[in-house]
Amino acid sequence: MSYTTTPYSAQPSAPHAETILEMRSITKTFPGVIALQDVNLAVRKGEIHAICGENGAGKSTLMKVLSGVYPHGTYDGSIVFEGSPVQFRNIRDSEHHGIVIIHQELALSPYLSIAENLFLGNERSSRGVIDWNKTNAEATKLLAQVGLKDSPETRIYDIGVGKQQLVEIAKALSKDVKLLILDEPTAALNDEDSAHLLGLIETLRQRGITSIIISHKLAEIIRIADRTTVIRDGRTIKTLDMKADAVTEEVLIRSMVGREMGSRFPTRTPNIGSEVLRVEDWTVHHPIQQDRKVVDNASITVRRGEVVGLAGLMGAGRTEFAMSVFGRAYGTRITGRVIKDGKDVTPHSVGAAIDVGIAYATEDRKRYGLNLLTDIKRNIASASLKKVSKYGVVDGGAEAKVAERYRTEMNIKAPNVDVVTGNLSGGNQQKVVLSKWIYTDADVLILDEPTRGIDVGAKYEIYTIINDLASAGKAIIMISSELPELLGMCDRIYAISEGRVTGEVLREDANEETLMRYMTMENDTDQEVAR
Amino acid sequence: MSAVKQMLGGNIRQYGIVGALFAIVLIFQFLTDGKLLLPNNVASLIQQNAYVMILAAGMVIVIIAGHIDLSVGSIVGFIGGVVAIMMQHWGWPWWLAILAGLALGAVVGTWQGFWVAYVGVPAFIVTLAGWLAFRGLAILLVGVTVSIGTQPQFVAISNGSIANFLGYIDNRDVVTLVIGALVIALMVFSQLRSRRIMQSHGLAVEPAVAVWARLAVLTVLVAFFAWTLAGSRGGTPIVLIIVGIVIVTYSFVTRRTVFGRNVYAMGGNLQGAMLSGVDTKKMNFFIFVNIGFLASIAAVVTTSKAGAAVGSAGNLYELDAIAACFIGGTSVSGGIGRISGVMVGALIMGVLNIGLSILQVDPAWQQVLKGLVLLLAVAFDLNAKRRAGTR
Ligand SMILES: Nc1ncnc2c1ncn2[C@@H]1O[C@H](COP(=O)(O)OP(=O)(O)OP(=O)(O)O)[C@@H](O)[C@H]1O
Ligand SMILES: [Mg+2]
Hints:
The structure holds 2 protein chains of 2 kinds. Chain A is of the alpha/beta class. Chain A is built from 17 helices and 24 strands. In chain A, strands 6-9-10-3-11-12 form a 6-stranded mixed beta sheet, with helices on both faces. Chain A has a 6-stranded mixed beta sheet with strand order 18-21-22-15-23-24, sandwiched between helices. A 4-stranded antiparallel beta sheet of chain A has the order 2-1-4-5, with helices on one face. Chain A starts with 18 loop residues before the first strand and ends in a 12-residue tail after the last helix. By secondary structure, chain B is mainly α. Chain B folds into 2 domains: 40-160 and 237-390, no CATH class; 164-236, no CATH class. Chain B is built from 16 helices and 4 strands. In chain B, the strands form 2 sheets. A two-stranded antiparallel sheet of chain B has the order 1-4. Chain B has a two-stranded antiparallel ribbon with strand order 2-3. In chain B, a hairpin with a 2-residue loop joins strand 2 (168-169) and strand 3. Chain B starts with a helix and ends with a helix. In chain B, 42% of the residues are buried. The chains are: A alpha/beta, B mainly alpha. Adenosine-5'-triphosphate binds next to strand 2, helix 1 and helix 14 of chain A.
């Protein structure tokens, strides 16, 4: 591999490789919103092309235009694929041409097996009868290509998001994909699964498959993309050649937000007061396999004005811990005590938890966080109806006013608070979820992956909001899979492994190595005495 | 033009269904040589379809919350029978029998609500069981018929009109005209008031032209309706007042109360609602208590209309109510629906009923046509949603 050192030798992906896709001056409007305005995108054959931009910039919309989710005629502009103009009427059309999109929200059928999902709509059958041998044999082959060792008969429901993502890619491979589109594929994945996924995309490049990847994780883009197109407010800003231009995260951020950004985390002088919440000997069992302990004798404390992190690998039980404390929203056979301001308040329902001043903002906004059918204002008020109602009657004006305040403060990108949340971009939906819980005015806010799917600029805003809440005397418990985020934000971090608290580290002692060691601590190894 | 567009904006679907109602009225007006909108026919349109509107007000809440209720028709038969027996066999005064009937409706609702909410049996099953059981009870109690001919006040509820104590102008009942004027005044007042409140909070409101245009259209409609009714045999049917109270109450309940909010929240995202602190069990329980109560009102109205309790009374009423909900734009999967839309849906069914009977269409063909209308309405709904691009 000596050619990498000599500047004039041929690159693996030649600089003037042929263009596989060209989208020309695409304009797409929704009632009251111009999502895309005159956007151009050119993708070369065999490259990994990243698209980045702030929340609501129009990335997902552009990809939906490309894949026929928005059919020809509902947008302006033209698409040229493999040298000829194309007009897709639906997703099937684009798949026919070898364009496959994997959406921001996965679209697998949870109660069907991996194999059934792989060939959904495209079953291996003879005369309408499914040939199970062929199905499973071909599925096994496809799974091997994406490095998945599970049996093809496993139900989707029983595998994690990381593996589901791989199943989606295997499904794309089964359709002879030429251009693979991935919309925030790693948003819900931990580092290990992300690395595997990115590796897989690179392998596909070697096989000549072109990929378009949307991501808010800039390090990732720098690592795998050949070129990156930046979109801001529905317009193309520029396309960067990652290697030739030696693009750094700072460069990307500058073109995304259009200004210089200082540090990644806003500073806060901790002003930590007395203890607000103490969870003691908390044990939770799995709701179905009732003998399985999901949380095992965990104890934590949080103080006023303190930001406490919960670090752990996927499946460590952080979300389960948080949700079970939040009025038993998860699990069975729960034991332990929740003590707030010195009093045992152990809430037995979500309503009770909210009443004692605990809030939990979920990591899964579509499933647990929002009513996607209704507007921003009703969502924001939904956990605090008591505050905007009297004698059971809602004061619509007060509600709208509150929502309007959060729309401005949180910088939610929407023309007004009557917009249905299902139509917001992912990051803006997240801001609605946060607004909803901040408005409950809880003393303890449990934020589960609060910056998932959020762009760098908005992340900074959310960190600032968290800091402001802490400065105002709130206690924050922050769950995050991104260690740098925990290290940058938290005063104290608990590491959780297999449902147990395996370590507690102060900000000044914390680094990724220490945390990783605690996070991967096996159940049977001797527990180090925490601090 | 743009103001009109903006006014229609989010409500295309809502206006679409009103347009469909107009079209159907016009078609029948034409086919019946103008008989459809004769005063007496308008009055009987209301008297014959009051039960659909009353039941649909409860049904839409059930459906928004993501359930279904198949039992209301049987409950109508059962409670109608009990009320008739109270008056006829036990000699209770009519008003006491009605009160007891309403209480019994709430008890029946409590029974079904208990199974749905606290045992967790799906509403489809619970109310299917209720559909069987209450029909059986109705037949056991009533036998073939229990006449209530001796109770004129009770019979008047669905057949009589409000006493004319203000005389006539140009052969029109003044009481009815006054009621019409009051309704218009209330409409104007409440629309302007809510607009002013929004404005005072510094929130965006629709343009004044749009509000006034809508009010003008509504005023013309109500005025026309009142004027027509005023020319009917008796003026305002008593049952119209009952229906009016039900509509106003449930519009308020669904749009303005915490209860209503929680119903929409549950239908839109059940787990999300639970995690927002909604006591979903309690909500489910009261949703069924409520529809049981409304079914008992429908029972009184139905029994009064027939002048007797019949074992088969209320047969298939549940399907009328469900159809009205879906024609009126209620989402099959829950979370979306409005009382106003559902009432328009009920009116469409009603106009079809009465128009086809004036034309003396074979009842079998009437069913075929109603089936087609239901299908077309929902197909139209899906299409409108798809074009709005919310998918
Ligand atoms: N169906 C729709 N109806 C109305 N507006 C929409 C609809 N879909 C998207 N939008 C709007 O179009 C804009 C672009 O949204 P899009 O989902 O493409 O953003 P994005 O770049 O993918 O953001 P994110 O990083 O948050 O996922 C947003 O302002 C969004 O509110
Ligand atoms: Mg997106």
